[in-house]
Amino acid sequence: MSALAQSSMQLIKGDMIIDGNKRSFLTYVPFTDEPDKMPLVISLHGGFASPKSMFHLANFRPVAEREKFIVVCPASKNIWHDGADIHSIDDVKFIDHLITYIIKTYHADPERVYITGISNGGFMTTRLACQLHQRIAAIAVVAATLDMGQGYDLTSPMPALYMHGTKDPVVSYKGGKLFGRGAYSHEEIIEKWVALNDCDKVPLVTNIPDTAHDGTSILKEEYHNPKNGLKVISYTINNGGHTWPGGWQYFPEFIIGKTTRNLNACEEIWNFFKPYKLSLKNQPTTFIVR
């Protein structure tokens, strides 16, 4: 790898003040000589993790370098405040300001802003789809769904992808109580998105076998609205744990379960994001499938 390519893999530290709180983030900008505005992927870490650990767990950089999109990993204040009680920490406002900052600073494309996250960051991703939908072209969530009874819900159609392990010991695939709050099951959140996006109820089903011989396999169910191109995609990771598919096994299996090697979540998520962009000139906001 050339020195220029190596330098382009470096992360840029940044921070801003939101409601008197210092908020930090790491940005990866691929090397490009193209004049076009680049898409933006915001990647949200899990609870009590960090932007650096998220870049390690979900390393979008090789994909971003090839496909030319910006990746930003912001930092929570210990956890993402994905519920109604934000304790003076407004993470929706933070991400809203962060999007504006990246668009102005790095000339990111405001019509191609995508959000992804795992665990607590995945719940926050779904909250952003509820409350910041006018700025987001698509979301992808790993090992999380949507909180119940927190004063917000899905209201606006949007392309959505969810990946969840059937043996996740932290956020149950079947939903239920989580840290004193209710959470939808994987199947329930998919059903909500399918109904909201008015997709065909019968999905295109793909079985991904255990070619990695790690004890996991994957059921992919793809729901489609042929009128506007919106999709909802479900990945059920059979025997999968609280992990990022194809990522780093950040704790032993007996604590968080298996990481499947039969899927590269970074590649799959970008392939899902790539066709979608917002048409901000139209009101209400509409989606364009490229």
Overview of this protein structure:
This protein has 290 residues and is α/β, with parallel strands linked by helices. It contains eight helices and 14 strands. It has helices spanning 3-8, 51-57, 61-67, 91-106, 120-131, 186-196, 253-256, 265-273, and strands at residues 12-18, 21-28, 38-44, 70-74, 108-118, 138-142, 160-165, 176-178, 181-183, 204-208, 217-224, 231-238, 276-279, 286-289. The strands form three sheets. Strands 1-2-4-3-5-6-7-12-11-10 form a ten-stranded mixed sheet, sandwiched between helices. A two-stranded antiparallel ribbon has the order 8-9. The protein is globular, with a radius of gyration of 18 Å. The protein starts with a helix and ends with a strand.
List its traits.
alpha/beta; two-stranded antiparallel sheet; 14 strands; disordered N terminus
- Morphology: globular
Cα distance spanning the termini: 32 Å
Biggest β-sheet description: 10 strands, mixed
Q: Which spans have pLDDT < 50 for at least 5 consecutive residues?
A: 1-8
Kindly state the number of beta strands.
Answer: 14
Rg estimate, integer Å: 18 Å
Percent helix, as a range, is 10-25%
The topology string of helices and strands comes to HEEEHHEHEHEEEEHEEEHHEE
Structural class: alpha/beta
Average pLDDT across residues?
93
Strand order of the largest sheet: 1-2-4-3-5-6-7-12-11-10
- In terms of DSSP E residues, the strand content is 25-35%
Number of helices: 8
